[in-house]
Write a structure and sequence with these properties.
heterodimer; A: 430 residues; alpha+beta; Cytochrome Bc1 Complex, Chain A, domain 1; six-stranded mixed sheet; five-stranded mixed sheet; globular; B: alpha+beta; 2 domains; seven-stranded mixed sheet
């Protein structure tokens, strides 16, 4: 996998991976916005834009047009990356040579351009009817997070940890901001985004440099870009002197324990590969300490894992546990961290973790969307993108480096969603 | 003798060989991909609770035993086999569904060692009273996790409403109570009955040599085992068990699942039925349909609304649903709009559109060798050929789709499951 960067204008580049490996062509337009009070607008606009264009002013017309292009997939979403909100437009079309010979790519790209720049407008804004409907859809998406208890626990943990920092703002924005958006305010927000946001256009598939560049230039031209802002920066989160403890109750069958640590390391730091290895040994795999101790040895949980946010300098631990063993599970989690801090793990664990992460790096070249997002995140963090260099950096990590990375961790917040009460849940289901 | 199943237009092929032991092996060569993937699966799912083994005796086993067995096979005398996969840089996993259990791994290196490990550990059970007891705690936590997952609850409640006797009405993992009745003896018995080579499928995808895979499988999987096991399903009445099942949960948005019970297709028609039904459901409820447009504009559904055909040994149903602010109003609207659609009949142009979309999606599936392998193996376990879907999609007839519309929706046998907000 090798994306070739072609800067097209200030603040906008094409990243092309020209390959016959896949049976589709994938295009992603990524626009970077600061994560702030505009987050809910940033999440809402792409939902409205997907409803139709001036040429296809009803949703069903756009959808049927895409069907006829052999099910071309055109969708938009937002991603939280550090303290930025990334708006992503995703287009994937089957390569015509496997179908009837006609190539749907050019027409699909033209549709993408229309969706980005040609929504039907009324009184200087996006169509009010669509804005109203999508506002309710977004409201339900945000409310729906409450139904997914593990996701909800993570959201509440981050809110408690990073209160007052932009990072505490959820990916889809805040519920209480939704009602102030109108067709006009959203259209202004979108023009601001399209014109000023740093942009990356990724393409993966059987297309050449010239063809890809032509398509990308056309897209940018239609966006009418000027005075591009610099990508946002982020301050590492620092732990409080005394760890926070947050407790919440719901009528659920299983409690969710979510623990946040600060890592005091940014992804661009030379010590980051050691932190990645540390996370793998601690909770990234099924051979890891958390899985082996919490689940396999003590059978306290079905899942027990950790993950790192390298941009904000955080490490999260997640477990699903019964109320009565919560303290025992929490003690084990902290105890295992101490084991890693003292480098009291086996050489085999270091070796297995290295192999596991190396496999993941190599596998990311097997799926277009994963390859794109991996490349985007690595470049944004100022890390090398070549798989060989990334693997070599991991291979150089020794046990002492892992222990040092673990020593850099500070406990910040413990959040517990208590499943106290309705132990057996829906025992009356049948 | 190895045989080749080809889709020339796609430039894809799958090699097949049935070994002397009866094991069916398939290989999808994918040069240029780093990931090599293998799954070793048995036709043994949560529905296979009652069966007659080679001794001619009928056995009834506790709900959730196939899934319990899946967990326990990872255990070896000196640890957990997933650590041995880790040592090879491979990631191992497994899952159980209503009709099958599958063990799998993916890796970029040491493929042969990992494949050998897969073939051996699945055939070599190690169960003790102590390790079975320990697993009860882990599985109980897994079941509690699903009890809190409204999507899982709304779907399982629907199946319990649609089916009076078929075991598909019971959770795949069993219940907190049923798993207490599982011990080493029961596990050994089920392993002997269902993990015979003739009841299993090996599927490999990636940059590998088919002949080499077949050779390894031949060496690792011994002689044919005992006579085939006979599954015993109770006779399922045509009528649904209940029209409505409601449950309150701590959810942010209510959920609905609407099921239409269908008569299962005879096995020679099963693939055509699946393809025809996926087209029909897309025409009726897909994002380009008139029904979808109206429900969406009325604010009753969002992007998570979906429909699919759910079928297996002895059961079949069309299922649709998702989160909605008003389940009862959505149900009333679906009923009304569906009756209109049945009265009006199908527009052949809609069928054509859906056919093109499905063709494109079938092509795109081959971007992901793991996804192809997964789908191919699931079909093979049911005696169906995934590669034949391509030709079926090209030749599907609008009249067939229209006939299914009448059969499935004119006089529907319908159940509804709703998860409401517990305030």
């Amino acid at each position: 996998m090798a994306f070739i960067e072609t800067p097209l204008e200030p603040g906008a580049s094409l990243f092309l991976w020209s390959t016959p490996k896949f049976k589709t062509t994938t295009v992603r337009v990524l626009l970077r916005m600061p994560l702030d009070d505009g987050a809910s607008a940033g999440a809402l606009v792409p939902m409205v834009l997907q409803r139709g264009t001036r040429a296809l002013p009803q949703t069903i017309l756009l959808s049927r047009r895409l069907d006829m292009l052999f099910g071309a997939e055109l969708r938009a979403d937002v991603l939280k990356y550090g303290e930025e909100q990334i708006v992503i437009f995703h287009l994937e079309v089957a390569n015509g040579s496997y179908l009837s010979g006609e190539d749907p790519l050019s027409e699909a790209l033209a549709l993408l351009g229309d969706v980005l720049t040609q929504p039907p407008l009324e009184s200087g804004g996006l169509r009010a009817e669509w804005v109203g409907q999508e506002r309710e859809n977004l409201r339900r998406r945000i409310q729906g997070i409450y139904s997914d208890k593990a996701h909800y626990a993570q959201l509440r943990l981050v809110e408690a940890m990073c209160s007052g920092e932009p990072y505490a703002i959820p990916r889809l924005g805040r519920l209480e901001d939704l009602d102030r958006h109108t067709g006009e305010s959203l259209w202004r927000h979108w023009q601001e985004t399209v014109v000023h946001a740093p942009a990356a256009i990724y393409m993966v598939g059987a297309l050449g440099q010239t063809e890809a560049e032509d398509h990308a230039r056309q897209l940018l031209e239609r966006m009418g870009r000027r005075e591009v802002r610099a990508p946002g920066s982020v301050t590492l989160h620092r732990a409080p002197t005394q760890p926070r403890d947050v407790h919440e109750r719901q009528t659920i069958a299983q409690g969710k324990l979510a623990i946040g640590f600060t890592t005091n390391l940014h992804a661009s730091d030379p010590g980051y590969p050691a932190l990645a290895m540390m996370n793998g040994i601690y909770g990234g795999f099924s051979h890891s300490r958390l899985f082996q101790e919490v689940r396999e040895r003590h059978s306290l949980a079905y899942y027990a894992q950790s993950q790192v946010d390298g941009v904000k300098g955080l490490l999260f631990v997640h477990l699903g546990v019964a109320s009565e063993v919560r303290q025992a599970a929490q003690d084990l989690v902290l105890q295992q961290l101490d084991v890693v801090r003292r480098a009291e793990f086996q050489p085999q664990e270091l070796e297995d973790t290295f192999k596991g992460i190396a496999t993941q790096i190599e596998q990311s070249a097997d799926a277009p969307s994963e390859a794109i997002m991996a490349d985007f995140e690595l470049r944004s963090a100022g890390r090398p993108t070549e798989p060989e260099r990334r693997i070599a950096a991991l291979a150089a990590v020794r046990a002492a480096d892992v222990a040092e990375a673990a020593q850099g961790l500070s406990l910040d917040t413990v959040y517990f969603l208590d499943g106290e009460g309705d132990g057996d849940g829906n025992g009356d289901a049948h | 003798m190895a045989m080749r199943i080809e889709v020339p237009a796609l430039r894809e092929e799958i090699w097949q060989e049935v070994l002397p032991s009866g094991l069916a092996c398939y290989v999808l060569p994918k040069p240029g991909f780093a990931t090599r993937y293998a799954s070793f699966s048995t036709r043994y799912g949560s529905c296979d609770q009652t069966f007659m083994g080679s001794d001619g005796q009928v056995r009834e086993t506790p709900a959730g035993i196939a899934h319990f067995l899946e967990h326990k096979l990872f255990e070896e005398e000196d640890g957990n086999v997933s650590e041995r996969f880790s040592a090879l840089g491979a990631m191992a996993n497994a899952y159980t569904n209503y009709g099958a259990t599958s063990y799998l791994f993916s890796t970029t290196e040491h493929f042969q060692e990992a494949l050998d490990l897969l073939l051996h550990f699945v055939q070599e059970p190690y169960f003790t009273e102590a390790n079975v007891h320990k697993e009860q705690g882990i599985i109980a936590e897994e079941l509690r996790m699903y009890l809190d997952d409204p999507r899982s609850v709304v779907f399982q409640n629907l199946l319990a409403a649609l089916y009076q006797r078929h075991p598909v009405r019971v959770e795949i993992g069993g219940t907190l109570d049923s798993i207490q009745h599982i011990g080493p003896q029961e596990l050994f018995l089920c392993h002997r009955a269902f993990y015979q080579p003739g009841n299993m499928v090996l599927m490999v995808a990636g940059d590998v040599d088919p002949a080499e895979v077949f050779g390894m499988a031949r060496r690792a999987v011994g002689a044919a085992g005992a006579a085939a096991v006979r599954r015993i399903y109770p006779e399922e009445p045509r009528a649904v068990a209940a029209e409505m099942k409601r449950q309150r949960m701590a959810v942010g948005v209510p959920l609905i699942a609407i099921g239409f019970k269908d008569d299962p297709a005879p096995s020679e028609d099963a693939l055509r039925r699946e393809v025809t039904m996926e087209i029909l459901l897309d025409v009726l409820f897909g994002s380009s349909s008139e029904i979808h447009r109206q429900l969406y504009e009325e604010g009753l559904i969002g992007q998570q609304f979906s429909s699919s055909y759910f079928s297996g040994d002895g059961y079949a149903a069309s299922v649709l649903g998702g989160p909605t602010p008003d389940p009862d109003r959505l149900l009333a609207r679906v009923e009304g709009l569906l009756a209109e659609a049945v009265a009006k009949g199908l527009d052949p142009r809609d069928v054509e559109r859906s056919r093109r979309r499905s063709l494109g999606e079938f092509v795109a599936l081959f971007n992901a060798p793991e996804a192809v392998a997964h789908a191919f193996s699931e079909y093979a376990l049911r005696g169906l050929d995934l590669m034949a879907v391509y030709d079926l999609l090209r030749t599907i007839d609008a009249d067939d789709v229209a006939q299914r519309l009448r059969e499935q929706f004119a006089l529907p046998r319908r159940s509804v499951s709703i998860v409401e907000r517990a305030d």
